[in-house]
Specification:
Length: 146
């Protein structure tokens, strides 16, 4: 799965989204995200974490119920679920949506949540590079093992 820009297949929105994958890492209380595409801090693209404390407790509990069917891009034994990310420039936030409806969280198709883009520069850089392939590729951040 290579990150490509496209219209939302989850919500039916006309906004452009990038497909990524994630899982809740309960040991360090983060939502761990991976994206395959333009290199940011990994050979395969990007790896980043969102602290659970940045998210509503309800969405974290719901994300823990989402089935994980996709293998780690880093080659570990971890499994991930698919979600979509987009940047909302008017509010400088990264918006995420997950399609899973048994049960849904806060939308008819599953759930959505957002975080401030300035708090997650790796993800924002990944978004920018997918949206504009002319931007410089290459590592911007220190390499950290998954």
């Amino acid at each position: 799965m290579i990150a490509t820009k496209g219209k939302s297949l989850v919500s039916g929105s006309d906004a452009e989204y990038v497909q990524i994958q994630a899982y809740v890492r309960e040991d360090d209380e983060t939502l761990h995200i991976q994206g395959r595409g333009p290199q940011v801090n990994r050979d395969y693209g990007v790896s980043a974490d969102i602290g659970i404390d940045e998210l509503d407790a309800g969405v974290v509990n719901w994300l823990l119920t989402v089935p994980r069917h996709f293998s780690s891009m880093a080659g570990t034994d971890k499994m991930y679920f698919i979600l979509q990310m987009r940047y909302a420039e008017s509010v400088n936030r990264l918006n995420f949506q997950v399609s899973y409806n048994t049960p849904t969280y806060n939308t008819p198709y599953g759930g959505n949540f957002s975080v401030p883009a300035n708090m997650h520069p790796k993800l924002k850089t990944f978004w920018d590079r997918v949206m504009d392939p002319e931007l410089k590729e290459g590592p911007d951040h220190e390499e950290i093992e998954d």
